[in-house]
Design goal:
Blueprint lengths: L3 H11 L4 H8 L3 H15 L4 E2 L6 E2 L1 H28 L4 E7 L1 H18 L3 E7 L4 H4 L5 E5 L8 E6 L3 E5 L1 H7 L13 E4 L8 E6 L2 E6 L2 E5 L2 H9 L5 E4 H10 L3 E3 L10 E5 L7 H12 L11
Parallel strand pairs: 3-4, 3-5, 8-11
Antiparallel strand pairs: 1-2, 5-14, 6-14, 7-12, 7-13, 9-10
């Protein structure tokens, strides 16, 4: 490995669907990308990319190099940022987007504290449950909960977040405790409409066993607070993020259903448009936000 530029080069390839996409990102021709990759492999005397695969696929050695290299690059960049921050303050406006409920509870306090620490930075926080495709281009940082489906964005882990199926104790008393995911198909369920997803098809897993259940969404809404309120009133079963219902479950106002079955995680991530060349205010806010959820997310501290 010649220098950190080679590591960044490999990480760009690793984040791309194929060499052509990597070439576009790097501003090089595909042949130039291939040639540089071969030079790195010759210097290391190890094959990093399997060129026989239809899609871009790194070898085990390539995956190891990228995984550890990404950590080194992040630490190196953090060191440079800290040195630059000591040399001069941050200025400008930071535009942040976050989901309504999570944004009110967690992102707004974090943004206000960040502005207090860096008074020359202006914060423009927008809370919205619009689809990611509608907001991504308008903000410096987008806080997102769930799977990332836009490959042109860079995601930074903020906090783990599970999804739970829940209902009120009164609802469970009336309808009984479901023993299997399939039992939900016969119960009143409440659906959250978000991200243009199929909101009444719920997916469960237990070990290697998976179940997909079409539930009757008699009530649905695009606001998480509303569906949580309906569940508290005993109107049906909801699937909701751990961060939103952990207090209710701890108090006993909501009951977890099917705890042995796992729903897809909806981890909290912060998104930007690029990894290199980010303004200092953006980088420092990302770290500030991550630090608010360490060593453990608030909903996992009891």
């Amino acid at each position: 490995m010649k220098d950190s530029a080679d590591l960044r080069f490999l990480l760009t390839i690793r984040a791309s669907e194929n060499l052509l996409a990597a070439a576009r990102t790097l501003g090089l021709t595909p042949s130039a990308v291939t040639q540089r990759l071969q030079q790195i492999e010759r210097r290391l005397d190890v094959r990093l990319v399997d060129r026989s695969a239809r899609r871009l696929r790194f070898t085990e050695e390539g995956e190891l190099l990228c995984a550890r290299g990404a950590v080194l690059i992040e630490q190196f960049d953090a060191l440079l940022d800290d040195l630059h921050a000591r040399r001069g303050g941050m200025v400008g406006t930071l535009k942040i987007n976050a989901p309504l409920g999570f944004g009110r509870r967690y992102v707004a306090p974090a943004a206000a504290h960040f502005q207090e620490l860096h008074p020359e930075v202006d914060i423009a926080l927008t809370l919205s449950d619009e689809p990611l495709t509608e907001v991504a281009d308008r903000f410096d940082v987008v806080v997102h909960i769930g799977e990332l489906r836009l490959s042109n964005l860079i995601g930074y882990a903020v906090a783990p977040n599970a999804r739970w199926a829940c209902a009120s104790p009164a609802f469970v008393k009336r309808h009984g405790m479901p023993a299997t995911p399939e039992a939900l198909a016969a119960l009143p369920c409440i659906a959250l409409r978000e991200n243009n997803e199929d909101v009444t098809l719920w997916h469960f897993s237990k070990g290697r066993t998976t179940r997909s259940v079409r539930v009757p969404g008699r009530l649905s809404c695009n606001d998480g607070d509303v569906i949580r309120g309906w569940a508290l009133e005993g109107r049906g079963v909801i699937v909701r993020s751990e961060w939103d219902v952990d207090d209710d479950v701890a108090r006993g106002t909501l009951v977890r259903l099917l705890p042995a079955w796992k729903l897809p995680d909806a981890n909290v991530i912060a998104l930007t448009h690029q990894r290199a060349g980010l303004p200092m205010r953006t980088k420092m806010f990302m770290r500030h936000l991550q630090a608010r959820f360490r060593p453990a997310a608030p909903w996992r501290v009891r």
